């Protein structure tokens, strides 16, 4: 109700969280820049190339079990009562190049992973054999191909086991290694420039002056960026002046994919940020029907996503979880970084306000999620929480014992 | 059935997965060694100290909203029709040390985060005020303490907001920062020495000789170690001789908390490893009722956990997921590294063998988990999978459409 000339303007326009996310996500273009890295460093990175098999895996037919390489036909009708007798003409270990070939009536002792000798078409498992000098009794029949991995059975030469956009999990790193490939082309991690604003903010390690509090937000923001698969760049603390903010913004936009100012989105400072963002690009929204986190500002400047987040620590961290994390993950092409969720029963009745999305921190014990909220400035209300639930804007009450999805912190 | 003098002995004793895990976990002692690190590097690390608050957070009573610092009593019964009139005697911004004090009948323009002036006990939100020069109309009453964060409200000086054993999530890093603390004592990450064995294994980057395959396992094992919160140390490929294995073991046991040999647990090589492990410590089990992953060997040597894993890539990776990952996580005191799970419907009927636990890789599409298994040597059967399900040893059949818990890869 303050008149429009007041220096502390209220928000003119609050949009729904859904609209805010839609406007934001419409402007996110996944990273196209790539880098060439060692397979040793590639866990959870996103392939920026198809992987084409230059060899067959395995490169030869090999034994899948320890036992005896045989001609399957020689073992037909073998049983404990009527075992088949074969002459063992040698042994092949894994890594040996078999110098010997065998024919019907013969067998070769073979280790798992060893190349099948010429003439053999299957492997009788050692468990079903008996050894008498160079005579081997086979107690169970095998069919042609049994206990043998065929050449190219895992990956055929010329095929593509992995494609551009695949995330390199442990098993996919294994598939790349199987082909002998040591380096892979992956998408760069999104670079996120983080600046703290607010003249009341004191860097860690310095003594607080009266009226000051320590910098919390650049630390929590950097943590959310890392957890979401991005790379944080800390620009430090910036004075709440148009010149200082513009200078920091100019520096950030030169290298970063995402620029975040914390503490600069509440009224006066927010207006400075809006001016700076809109001078260079397009403001997407300022003010969201979200609690905590209402005074979020988002803009697009030269394909870079720019945020102004509230300065109060939990509001800032909530904004980061709701807007920054998803933005980083979408830019990164990544799946590994989506937050874990668990189901729990809500520990008490929680009223909410229709038309506003509420983010509520909870502590989980024995399947029950107890609200952990203290006040919007209290970092401990989140530090003591295990996760958070999101109460949609069309819900005005969540009953005790209702099943809720908890996003783990 | 081969006689006991055979060079390729079958397993003498297969124990259940549950017994194997119990024997193993009984011997795991969480890491006690610690290191002092910067808060910037502390995400997901585990505190090895209690954090004691040396200051109050906030260090002073501050405005939680933009508006006017008031004496609450002055606003009682204020309404749109009958606003209360107060004289504004100045403004305080965040970071200012207030030089002014106020009394009843007065107010001070105040920004979120700014120190409350002497004499004020609450903040009237700017949305419910109107400004006429230095006269302010208050349209809504506030109660004492409203829109004010009290000194120490978030963290009280002398209390402990975080304890030894807590994992440093984004919000907990925020709580440490709130206290101005720049460095924290955390538990060391478990060091895992990884050696590949098998004369058929060729290092990446070299040309395959006949009978050889590329090294997959040291890459997948290192990935599982990283995903589980440990630090992998690659000892490279070791020849399948008693001397070479003993030498690698001696080197590993000197620095590592966990020692893993891959490919050395199948029969002949396994026997060498058993000899080495039992010469220095105690074998916990060799051979588990698990598919794939039967030939797993585990031992404890001087409080170090030692593994011999099967050489076939999926058997090795499954053993790593079932035994190595949990061991690393327990040693690490960590929570962040437990795998994500999702519920899905099984896409087809899957028979299993009573008395044996089955690990089955699956691909998830639209809530349906389709088995992705190819053969035990096929790394692509895991690389194409999104996760795996564990079919317990007392289940012989999982029906199509049954709900299963999928551990994401």
What do you see in this structure?
Two copies of one chain form a homodimer. In chain A, strand 18 (297-301) and strand 19 (304-309) form a beta hairpin. The first copy, chain A, is α/β, with parallel strands linked by helices. Helices cover 20% and strands 29% of the residues of chain A. Chain A folds into four domains: 17-33 and 189-331, Molybdenum Cofactor Biosythetic Enzyme, Chain A (3-Layer(aba) Sandwich); 37-55 and 158-187, Molybdopterin biosynthesis moea protein, domain 2, CATH 3.90.105; 62-149, Molybdopterin biosynthesis moea protein, domain 3 (Molybdopterin biosynthesis moeA protein, domain 3); 341-408, MoeA, C-terminal, domain IV (Beta-clip, Beta Barrel), CATH 2.40.340. Chains A and B meet through strand 7, helix 2, strand 12, strand 13 and helix 3 of A and strand 7, helix 2, strand 12, strand 13 and helix 3 of B.
Helix proportion range of chain A: 10-25%
Q: Looking at this structure, what is the CATH superfamily of the largest domain in chain A?
A: MoaB/Mog-like domain
Looking at how many chains there are and whether they match, the oligomeric state comes to homodimer
Instruction: Give the total of beta strands of chain A.
Output: 26
Helix run count of chain A: 7
List low-pLDDT spans of chain A.
Answer: 1-9
CATH classification, class level of the largest domain in chain A = Alpha Beta
What's the Cα radius of gyration of chain A? 32 Å
Domain tally of chain A: 4
Overall pLDDT score of chain A: 91
What general form of chain A does the structure show?
elongated
Distance between the termini of chain A: 37 Å
Structural class by SSE content of chain A: alpha/beta
Strand order of the largest sheet of chain A: 6-3-5-4-8-7
Largest sheet of chain A, described in full?
6 strands, mixed
């Amino acid at each position: 109700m303050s008149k429009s000339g007041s220096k502390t303007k209220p928000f003119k326009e609050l949009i729904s969280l859904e609209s805010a996310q839609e406007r934001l996500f419409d402007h996110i273009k996944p990273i196209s820049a790539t880098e060439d890295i060692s397979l040793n460093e590639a866990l959870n990175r996103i392939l920026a190339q198809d992987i084409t098999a230059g060899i067959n895996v395995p490169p030869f037919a090999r034994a899948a079990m320890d036992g005896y390489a045989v001609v399957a036909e020689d073992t037909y009708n073998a049983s404990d009562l009527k075992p088949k007798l074969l002459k063992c003409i040698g042994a092949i270990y894994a890594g040996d190049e078999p110098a010997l070939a065998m024919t019907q009536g013969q067998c070769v002792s073979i280790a798992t992973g060893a190349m099948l000798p010429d003439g053999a078409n299957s492997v009788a498992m050692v468990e079903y054999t008996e050894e008498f000098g160079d005579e081997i009794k086979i107690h169970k029949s095998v069919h042609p191909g049994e206990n043998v991995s065929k050449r190219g059975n895992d990956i055929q030469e010329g095929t593509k086991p992995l494609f551009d956009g695949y995330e390199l999990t442990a098993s996919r790193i294994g598939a790349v290694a199987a082909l002998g490939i040591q380096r892979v082309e992956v998408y760069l991690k999104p670079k996120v420039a983080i600046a703290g604003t607010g003249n009341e903010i004191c860097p860690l390690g310095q003594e607080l002056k009266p009226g000051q509090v320590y910098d919390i937000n650049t630390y929590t923001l950097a943590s959310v960026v890392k957890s979401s698969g991005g790379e944080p760049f800390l620009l430090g603390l910036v004075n709440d002046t148009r010149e200082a903010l513009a200078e920091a913004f100019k520096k950030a936009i030169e290298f970063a994919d995402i620029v975040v100012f914390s503490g600069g989105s509440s009224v006066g400072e927010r207006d400075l940020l809006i001016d700076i963002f809109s001078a260079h690009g397009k403001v997407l929204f300022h003010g969201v029907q979200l609690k905590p986190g209402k005074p979020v500002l988002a803009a697009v400047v030269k394909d870079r996503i720019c945020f102004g987040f509230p300065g109060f620590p939990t509001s800032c961290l909530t904004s980061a979880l709701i807007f920054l994390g998803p933005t980083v993950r979408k830019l990164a092409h990544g799946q590994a970084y989506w937050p874990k969720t668990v189901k729990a029963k809500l520990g008490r009745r929680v009223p909410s306000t229709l038309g506003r999305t509420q983010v509520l921190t909870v502590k989980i014990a024995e399947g029950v999620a107890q609200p952990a909220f203290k006040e919007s400035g209290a970092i401990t209300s989140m530090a003591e929480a295990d996760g958070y639930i999101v109460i949609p804007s069309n819900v005005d009450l969540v009953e005790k014992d209702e099943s809720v999805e908890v996003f783990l912190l």
